[in-house]
Amino acid sequence: MKCSKCGGTAVINMRQHRLRLCGRHFLEWFTAMTQRTIEKYKMFIPEDKVLVAVSGGKDSLALWDVLLQLGYQAEGMYIGLGIDEEIGYSNKSLEMCNKFVEEHHPDALLHVVDVGAEYGQSIPQLARTTQRGRGRPCAVCGLVKRHIMNSVARDGGFTAIATGHNLDDEVAVLMQNTLRWQSGYLARQAPVLEERDGLARKAKPFVRIYEREAAAFVLLRGIDYIYDECPFARGSTTNYYKELLNQLELNSPGTKQQFYLQFLRARDSGQVTFARPRESELHPCVRCGQPTTAGELCAFCRLWE
Ligand code: AMP
Ligand code: FES
Ligand code: ZN
Ligand code: ZN
């Protein structure tokens, strides 16, 4: 298999782009694709202060690496969830983030917030004591992560938050929302969410990158990461849809990319429209100050009541 650019030995075949690339040209392509996505969806500019949410997994570490290489002001943020019962998942994830900084970008800044130390209960403990999510930690975890990202961004003067969501993540969500015709979600799912009521802009610079490409990138760059996924995500619906979509992709390369990108095009050009739910009035939570539609306390602050 030969590199489409230089004729050298290709290390990856990206059938949806009809492109086979050697290591050097793949790294160049990957970085350029990320930059093009950032520009196309107006995610951020070099003057922005970007907070990169890093989980210790391949996608978010690859993202931080690329943003630093591209010269963005990108600081990392790791949220310690305290998910350590079986495989020491959270401890290992933090180790990987620290190792990444030491080995690849010793001058980079990593902000660490440990949920248990900061608020008194880890995610698994909190999931047991709250009604929310009926004992499944994922809903509580998502809520806590969003809240902490927003407050670190606000306190640190960050203008944008970047996450490592890739095309496989986005297309699995799109499939779930489409199968249920969740028009509110379909109206909002986007590569970038604008700043609103003091919440920083949120961007996903990898929305055009397949998961296997992020895996190839970290391998070629020598970035170590946590291979295990969160033990609570095993058997999730999202993983099931990812498997189905990969089967479709195998028979018909480009299916995932087309489904996602054509959806964005059709919606954003007005070809199809989804009813947006009426935006509810927001007011600041009396305890933490973050905007909420709920009563006096936001959903995050109510968790600890
Ligand atoms: P996930 O929901 O686990 O697929 O993660 C999606 C994105 O959220 C990752 O690519 C990260 O950018 C971010 N993220 C997930 N977990 C954490 C964490 N513990 N700390 C900081 N960011 C995270
Ligand atoms: Fe939050 Fe698994 S990462 S429950
Ligand atoms: Zn080449
Ligand atoms: Zn609050």
Descriptive overview:
47% of the residues lie in helices and 12% in strands. The chain is of the alpha/beta class. The protein has a 6-stranded mixed sheet, sandwiched between helices. A two-stranded antiparallel ribbon has the order 1-2. A two-stranded antiparallel ribbon has the order 9-10. The termini are far apart. Bound molecules: adenosine monophosphate, FE2/S2 (inorganic) cluster and zinc ion (ZN) (2 copies).
Summed up:
47% of the residues lie in helices and 12% in strands. By secondary structure, the protein is of the alpha/beta class.
Task: Give the biggest beta sheet.
Answer: 6 strands, mixed
What's the tally of helices? 12
Q: What is the typical, i.e. mean, pLDDT?
A: 95
Indicate the proportion of strand residues.
5-15%
Total E-strand runs: 10
Helix percentage range: 40-55%
For the biggest β-sheet, the strand order reads 5-4-3-6-8-7
Order of helices and strands: EEHEHEHEHHHEHHEEHHHEEH
Name the structural class: alpha/beta
SSE layout:
Layout: E1 12-14, E2 19-21, H1 23-40, E3 49-53, H2 58-69, E4 73-80, H3 89-104, E5 110-114, H4 115-119, H5 123-129, H6 137-156, E6 160-162, H7 167-179, H8 183-188, E7 192-193, E8 201-203, H9 211-221, H10 237-251, H11 255-268, E9 283-284, E10 291-292, H12 299-303
Parallel strand pairs: 3-4, 3-6, 4-5, 6-8
Antiparallel strand pairs: 1-2, 7-8, 9-10
The structure holds adenosine monophosphate, FE2/S2 (inorganic) cluster and zinc ion (ZN) (2 copies).
Residues 53-55, 59-60, 77-79, 81, 145, 163-165, 169 line the site of adenosine monophosphate.
